[in-house]
Design goal:
The protein is an alpha/beta fold. The protein is built from 10 helices and 6 strands. It folds into 2 domains: about 5-145, Response regulator (Rossmann fold, 3-Layer(aba) Sandwich), CATH 3.40.50.2300; about 155-210, Winged helix-like DNA-binding domain superfamily/Winged helix DNA-binding domain (Arc Repressor Mutant, subunit A), CATH 1.10.10. Strands 2-1-3-4-5-6 form a 6-stranded parallel beta sheet, with helices on both faces. Helix 2 (about 35-45) packs parallel to helix 3, helix 3 (about 65-75) runs parallel beside helix 4 (about 90-95) and helix 7 (about 155-165) packs across helix 10. The chain is globular, with a radius of gyration of 17 Å.
C-alpha cells in the first residue's frame, strides 16, 4: 500500500518539484495539495493522508497553527515540516505542537524521501543541522513540551492575529473564516487585551517577533 501524502506549500513550483519526486517512488503518492494553511487543515480532515508534508510560512494560517489545529482534531496525524527556516524558535514550537519531523528545503532528495518513510513508521526525523540546534536549545531551556509562547491566545485569536498582520480587514477576515464581523472585532479586542497591544502596528510587530508571519 502506498504512503498517501498531502503537500502544503504556497510556492507552486516547489510543490510541482516535490510531487514529481514523490510520484517517481513506487511506494508513495500525492493525494492533495494546498497553498495556504486553512486549505491544508480542511484537506487533512477530508483526505486523511498518511503524511502531511508542510511548509511553515504560509498565508491565511501558518504551518505552526495548521499543525496545532490538525493535531487537535486528529492526534494521530503525521506531520513532516519541510522549510527553509533553520530557527530555534520555529523548531521548538513545531515539535511541541506535535510535528514528527523537521527537514530543511536544501536537503537532498534521498534525505526527504527517507524522512517520509521514517515518519510513516512512527519515527521522529530531523535534519542533522536541526538536531544540533535542538540539543543546544534543550540544554539551554529544558523540556520543549513545557514551553508555550502563545501568551494564552486561543487558536482562533492566533489565526485572526495572522490575518490582521497579513493586512486583511475585519470584513475580509470574517469572509475568510465564515464568521461575523462582530465576532472578528471581539476576537481582535480580546487578543489586544491579552497581549497589552494597542494598534495594528503593534500587532504586526508582535506577529513578526513570534514567527506568526514571515517577512
Amino acid at each position: 500500500m502506498k504512503i498517501r501524502i498531502l503537500l502544503a506549500d504556497d510556492h507552486t513550483i516547489l510543490r510541482d518539484g516535490i510531487r514529481s519526486l514523490i510520484e517517481d517512488e513506487p511506494d508513495m503518492e500525492v493525494v492533495g495539495e494546498a497553498e495556504d494553511g486553512l486549505t491544508v487543515v480542511k484537506l487533512a480532515e477530508t483526505l486523511k493522508p498518511d503524511i502531511i508534508l508542510m511548509d511553515l510560512a504560509m498565508p491565511l494560517l501558518n504551518g505552526l497553527e495548521a499543525t496545532r489545529q490538525i493535531r487537535k482534531s486528529n492526534p494521530r496525524a503525521k506531520i513532516l515540516i519541510l522549510t527553509m527556516h533553520e530557527n530555534e524558535e520555529y523548531i521548538r514550537q513545531v515539535l511541541a505542537a506535535g510535528a514528527m519531523g523537521y527537514i530543511l528545503k536544501d536537503a537532498a532528495a534521498r534525505e526527504l524521501l527517507g524522512a517520509i518513510r521514517s515518519v510513516q513508521k512512527g519515527e521522529v526525523v530531523l535534519s542533522p543541522a536541526i538536531t544540533r540546534l535542538i540539543v543546544t536549545d534543550y540544554l539551554r531551556w529544558g523540556d520543549l513540551s513545557t514551553q508555550d509562547s502563545s501568551e494564552g491566545l486561543t487558536d482562533r485569536e492566533r489565526q485572526i492575529l495572522q490575518l490582521i498582520a497579513e493586512g486583511y480587514t475585519n470584513k475580509q477576515i470574517a469572509d475568510i473564516l465564515s464568521i461575523s464581523i462582530k465576532t472578528v472585532q471581539a476576537h481582535r479586542l480580546n487578543l489586544m487585551k491579552k497581549l497589552d497591544l494597542h494598534d495594528r502596528a503593534e500587532l504586526i510587530k508582535y506577529a513578526i517577533q513570534k514567527k506568526i508571519i514571515d517577512i
